[in-house]
Structures are given as structure tokens and as C-alpha cells.
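Team,

Forwarding the record for the chain on the shared tracking sheet. I've put the sequence and predicted structure together so nobody has to dig through attachments.
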Amino acid sequence: MIVGVHGIRCYRYLTKAGDPEGAALALAAEWGAALGKGYDGVAYEAGGLAAAYYAHLLHLGTAQGATDEDPALLGDTGQRMLADWATALGAPDEVLMGRAGLPVRQIAEWIATWHGALARRVVVLFCREADTYLGDPLGERRVQVRAALSRVLEERRPRVLLAHSLGSVVAYETLWHRPVELDTLITLGSPLGLPGAIRDRLSLGPGNEHLTGQRPPGVRRWVNICDIGDVVAIPRDLPAVFPGIDVHHEVSLGPIATHKATRYLAVPEVAAELARLR
């Protein structure tokens, strides 16, 4: 049994399916197909691949005429998150400070100039959804998202949890708040170690704050996989700040779509980890 938990830009599954249950089924089918022969399609979902879906719980919508990737839509903490991201990517002080009222746009354009328009879009979208999740340690949305994953984990009792992007943040927190037994946690394109924006805002539950970076209780093996060009998987050397990781792989997904879940799921390193459990 495998459970997958998605990252950003997954509200579209709900739009197409009509409800969260249908969205979870569609996501599971897509991830199963990406894993390859033996994992693809409904048959494998029925036999062991399920998705935890939470995008609807973080969806904010946009004002008329606006787009999700507009950095001006970010709130104060989201803008600080964008600045933390740019700092980690090497942005100079003059970009981060800027003129009054302009820094957020300057930061986004710097990312586009140095890392490409797609990277700018991905980072801004990530900051929007991640800030919605992380904004309040006790916020209702945050609690509901963790509960959504907990329900699937407790119902399915998987051996493996595949956690992509923001889903790795959700998974890490959930596994501390509501521990379950797992053979393997596989994080893909994870931003867990980003200082300020992510790492310093994690909630592990009362009495666990000093354990940030350790393997969650109940998890026997933690594998992290990141693409060398993934602007979300910052810092690249996640085990340096999360020593609880047992195995770390740096991979190359190609020059485009370096943060795409299905590209990560198709790498040989994921197949090898799943083969260990057969």
C-alpha cells in the first residue's frame, strides 16, 4: 500500500472531478501511471495506491482580472516568504530592498531573469499556497489539511508515503502530530529546509519543537529526492539541516518541468525504493 500527498497547483483536479473524492482518485491514477507498469490505473489504486487530497482546503480564489501568479496577491508573510526564497537563490540586497511598494515585483522579476519565467511562476504560486497553509500555527486550514492526510494514513495504513513539494511539509508536520507506522517516507522536491520561509515555521506539536530536522516517529526510513535545478527544493543538500534523512538522491529531470510530481515519480530512484519493499 502506497499513499501519495500532492504539492501545489492541484485545485484543477477538483475542478475537473467535481468533488475531493473524485480529485483524489484522478490524482492517484495519474501518479500510478507515472510510477509505471504494475502501478498504473484504477486496478493498482484499488490494490494499494491512494492519494490524500487537500488543495480545496487552501484554495483562496482570485480577484476578477487577477491571476494566481501575481506576486501582488501575496500577503505580508507571503511576500516575506518570497524574499526568503530569493535570498536562498542568491538575490542581491538591492533586489530584496527595492523602492517602497515595489520589492515583491522586483523579487519576482529577478527570479524570472535568473531562473526563468516558469521558475518565477512556480515560486510565486508556491508562496501563495504555502503561506495559506503556514500562516497560522493553529489555523483552521492547517489543521484541516493535516487531518485530511491523517484520515487517509489511518484508513489505508500504507507502507510508503510519497510526499511532493508542499505535500512534504504537510506530511512532515502530520507525522509528528499524528504518528503512524511507515516503512518509508519519500519526499520529492521538498522545500522543508528553506530557512525563515519554511523550516522556521514548522509545527511539530507540543514538546517536539527541538526535534525539527529529525525523522518523524514511526518512520523507519526517510528518502529525499531533489532535482538539481528545482527552485522549490531549496536548499539542495536537505540532509545538512534535516539529519533524520537516511538517503538523499540528487537527480536531473531535464531543463523544464523540474518540479513536476510525475517527473519525480518516474525516476529510477523511486522505483528502486519501492522494489525494496516487494
